[in-house]
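Quarterly update, task 2.4: LJ64HWYM-bound model.
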Amino acid sequence: MLHVSTRGEAPAIGFTDALLAGLARDGGLYVPEAWPRLAAADIAAFAGKPYAAVAERVLSALIPSSDISAPLLGDMVRSAYAGFRHPAVCPLAQIGDNLFVLELFHGPTLAFKDVAMQLLARMMDYALKGRGQRATIVGATSGDTGSAAIDAFGGLDQVDVFILYPHGRVSEVQRRQMTSVDAPNVHAIALEGTFDDCQAIVKGLFNHHAFRDQLALSGVNSINWGRIAAQTVYYFTAAVALGAPLRPVSFSVPTGNFGDVLAGYIAKRMGLPIDRLAIATNENDILVRTLASGRYEVRGVKPTSSPSMDIEVSSNFERLLFEVYGRDGQQVRRLMAALQQGRAFDIDAAPLAAIRTDFSSHAVDEQQTEAEIGRAWREAGYLLDPHTAVAVAAARRELACNPAVPMVALGTAHPAKFPDAVERAAGLRPALPPHLANLFARPERFTVIANEQSAIESFIRSRARAAAGIAA
Ligand SMILES: Cc1ncc(COP(=O)(O)O)c(C=O)c1O
Ligand SMILES: N[C@@H](CCOP(=O)(O)O)C(=O)O
């Protein structure tokens, strides 16, 4: 199976090449040339299976065995999830009538990013060793991708890791998770800007082809198709636990960069009977405005209590546009050029109608987020982090319209990552799990850098072992 770029100009490439490439050379994002489909009987057979077994089956439909053999994929998946703190890896908790939270935060860094990142690191390490290559990993984070990447890739011989986070705009726990890791191949960069600035610079680094080639750049954001592929799995385990494929299930997904909800859309394209995919945003509601009006318009990011979703340029929305425009790369290039030049684009009527067929959207403001944390604690004794609270609040709105379909809100972070917001809303301060108990005592190491691509390039050149002349 080959992978094509959403902008239609880069050559089609295999899975491993897409995994290591990050962004396509035409600035687009890779997707498989066709969506594989799982038969209803295959999906039904997931019932009662361990998470790793379902992951192996779902991912073997997306990863050709010529890239990673089936036994090796099985080993990687088992080892990726062996360290999760819950035996079900991603368990479901019921918090109301037909209302469930899919807990995706039992990995090492307490956010859903671990689910894909632990596997991605194993796949990339294998690919790099097989090719005798080294890579320079660059990533943009609003708090969670960075810590997950640092945990998964820290200390690996083949890679140097540079993570850009918005200075002063992540929670203290998130910052310390990135800055207190004692691994010489890890570099935390506090960028003087927003997450959107961090992501624009990361994409700019990939689009600077001489720099990209010299440093052998790779990406770990959801730019990387391997991340999205791994995130499809928990939609299958959750839906099957609630009766799929015999009955449909809906999901409410706290959304920023659009990777997680896109993974749900792909699970649906692969045959999973998903009824609604609710895009739940905080006050950075660009996607809600887009679904309502058809106009995608950047207005400036507001800081909120769910900082990981303080995003306006939702990278993976491009992958959805590619689908609803009939995989026409030229149309995607036109829209992305308009976004670059005028900070906005308009979606045509037919593609917009197609988006509305699968997705609905809800913005949840700061007051509603706080109220939801309080409500879930009072009514169900369940502590939500602010990102999950946004999803649960949106889930309740969807359930009010369609109470018969089970609704799963994605629980994307552990409440202890955002103790101040949780304490304000619920009146108690969640404790970090034992493996992070000394987080506040560890020394921090980070570099503050101006919001300029050239400054970031100089810093990376000065630290990366893959820079010219030092490459393995
Ligand atoms: C805790 C948390 N929830 C939700 C999101 C939004 O997910 P996505 O960017 O895939 O839309 C993020 C950031 O990615 C996050 O870190
Ligand atoms: N919320 C994310 C932002 C980056 O998202 P990604 O899925 O593209 O890596 C974060 O916490 O870093």
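Highlight for this quarter: DSSP finds 20 helices and 15 strands in the chain.
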